[in-house]
Write a structure and sequence with these properties.
Layout: H1 3-26, H2 30-42, H3 54-71, H4 75-80, H5 82-108, H6 112-123, H7 127-137, H8 141-169, H9 176-205, H10 211-231, H11 236-254, H12 260-287, H13 296-318, H14 330-338, H15 344-350, H16 360-388
C-alpha cells in the first residue's frame, strides 16, 4: 500500500469512528449512517476511486463478518431453531426469487435469464446487513437468532442458485437433478471445509496458552475456511459459519485458553466493526455513482416486488411450525419480512452477472437501488418497530 492508500485508509477509519459516535448519540442504525457518509464521501476527491467488487466483498469483508457472528452463536440455540431456519432459507429463497423473476419477466419483458439472475441475488437477506443492524438494535434474543441464522443460511442457497445460472449463461445445460447435486455439493463441501479448518487449527491452538497465537490461529481459520470452500466451488459462507460455530462452542472448552478467550472475542469484535465500517462506506460511495434516477420507474416496481416475494416466502413457510415450539408469533413474522435487509451479498452477485446478459446494466443499478432502500428506509424504521412491539432485548414480546 502506497502513501496515498494509507492516507485514504486512515481517513476512512476516522470517518467511520465519527459516524459511530454520532449514530449512537442520536439512536440511529450505524450501517445507515455509514451509507449516508459514504454517499457524501463520493462527492469528494477521496471517494472518487474507492474500489468495490465481488472479490473485495467475498474475499476481504465476508470472512471476518460471518466468522465473528458465528463465534458468538450458541450451538444449542442455533440447533433448536434449525428446522425453521432451514425451511425459511431454502424455501424462502426459491419462492422469493420466483416471484421477483416472474414479475420482471411479466412487467418489463426481461429475458428469463436476466430476471432469474436478479431474482436469485435479491432473494437472500444479507447476513452482513442483518447482523450489523440487529446487534445495534439489541433485538430480542430469539428473534435475533432466527433472523440472523436464516440470513446466514439463505446466502448459501442464493450463491448456488447464482452459480447454476452462471453455468446456463455460459451455455451449459443443467437438469433439475444436476441442480440438486450442485446444491448438495455447495452445502456439504462448504460445511466440511469449515469443520476441517476449524478442528485442524484448534488442534494447534490446544498446544499453547499464548493469547496472541490463539488470536492469530482464529484469523487463519476465518479466512482459510472461507477461501478453501470457494476454491472448491462450495459456499464460503457455510464454511466460515461452520468454523465459527465450532471455535465458539468447542474451542472454549478444549483448545482456547481461559486467558485467551476475552482476547479472541475482543479482537473479533474489533475486526467486525472495522469490516462493517469500511464495507458500508464503500457501498454508500458507490450508491452515489449509480444512475438510479434513470431507472426510478423500474425501481418503483422492483422494490414492492422484492417485499412481496419476501412476504410470500415468510408467512406461508411459517405455517407448518404454528403448533410447535418453533412457532413464530405474528410480530416475529412481520419483522422477518420488513427486517430482511439486502446489502453486500446482493451487490457482490450483481457485480458478477456476465456482461452477455442483456439486462446486465439494469441488474446492477436496480440492485444498488434496492439495497439503498433496504438500508435507509427499512433499516431506519426497524428500531421504531422493535420498540412499538416490545421486541428489544429485555422486553416481553407481544
Amino acid at each position: 500500500m502506497n502513501e496515498a492508500g494509507i492516507t485514504t485508509f486512515g481517513a476512512l477509519l476516522l470517518l467511520a469512528s465519527l459516524v459511530a459516535i454520532l449514530s449512537r448519540r442520536i439512536g440511529l442504525p450505524y450501517t445507515a449512517g455509514l451509507v449516508v457518509a459514504g454517499a457524501a464521501l463520493a462527492l469528494s476527491p477521496l471517494g472518487s476511486d474507492l474500489p468495490l467488487s465481488r472479490e473485495i466483498i467475498f474475499n476481504l469483508f465476508l470472512p471476518p463478518l460471518i466468522f465473528e457472528a458465528a463465534l458468538q452463536m450458541p450451538w444449542q440455540r442455533f440447533r433448536d431453531e434449525l428446522p425453521l431456519t432451514l425451511t425459511l432459507a431454502f424455501g424462502g429463497v426459491a419462492i422469493s426469487a420466483a416471484v421477483v423473476a416472474a414479475g420482471l419477466f411479466g412487467v418489463f419483458g426481461w429475458s428469463w435469464l436476466g430476471a432469474a439472475f436478479f431474482g436469485v441475488l435479491i432473494a437472500a437477506t444479507d447476513p452482513v446487513s442483518v447482523i450489523a443492524a440487529f446487534k445495534e438494535m439489541k433485538a430480542e434474543p430469539r428473534l435475533a437468532m432466527v433472523v440472523e441464522s436464516e440470513s446466514l443460511l439463505n446466502d448459501g442457497v442464493a450463491a448456488v442458485g447464482f452459480a447454476i445460472l452462471l453455468g446456463l449463461a455460459g451455455g451449459a445445460g443443467l437438469s433439475f437433478e444436476a441442480a440438486l447435486v450442485s446444491l448438495g455439493w455447495t452445502v456439504a463441501i462448504g460445511i466440511g471445509s469449515g469443520a476441517v479448518a476449524a478442528f485442524a487449527v484448534l488442534a494447534i491452538a490446544g498446544r499453547t496458552e499464548d493469547h496472541l497465537v490463539e488470536v492469530t490461529l482464529t484469523t487463519v481459520v476465518a479466512w482459510g475456511s472461507f477461501l478453501l470452500a470457494e476454491h472448491l466451488g462450495a459456499s464460503g459462507v457455510f464454511a466460515a459459519l461452520t468454523a465459527g460455530i465450532i471455535v465458539g462452542n468447542k474451542g472454549w472448552r478444549r483448545a482456547i485458553s481461559e486467558n485467551g478467550r476475552p482476547h479472541v472475542l475482543n479482537f473479533w469484535e474489533f475486526a467486525a466493526f472495522l469490516a462493517n465500517s469500511l464495507l458500508f462506506l464503500l457501498i454508500g460511495s458507490h450508491e452515489a455513482h449509480q444512475p438510479i434516477a434513470l431507472f426510478s420507474g423500474a425501481l418503483a416496481v422492483v422494490i414492492p416486488l422484492t417485499l412481496l416475494g419476501r412476504a410470500l416466502a415468510v408467512y406461508p413457510l411459517s405455517l407448518p411450525f404454528r403448533g410447535t415450539r418453533m412457532r413464530l408469533q405474528a410480530t416475529y413474522q412481520h419483522v422477518l419480512v420488513w427486517g430482511g435487509l439486502r446489502g453486500a451479498i446482493a451487490l457482490a452477485l450483481a457485480l458478477s452477472v456476465p456482461a452477455s446478459v442483456a439486462e446486465h446494466r439494469q441488474i446492477v443499478v436496480l440492485a444498488f437501488g434496492v439495497v439503498a432502500f433496504s438500508i435507509l428506509v427499512q433499516g431506519l424504521t426497524i428500531p421504531t418497530i422493535l420498540r412499538r412491539w416490545r421486541l428489544a432485548a429485555g422486553e416481553a414480546a407481544v
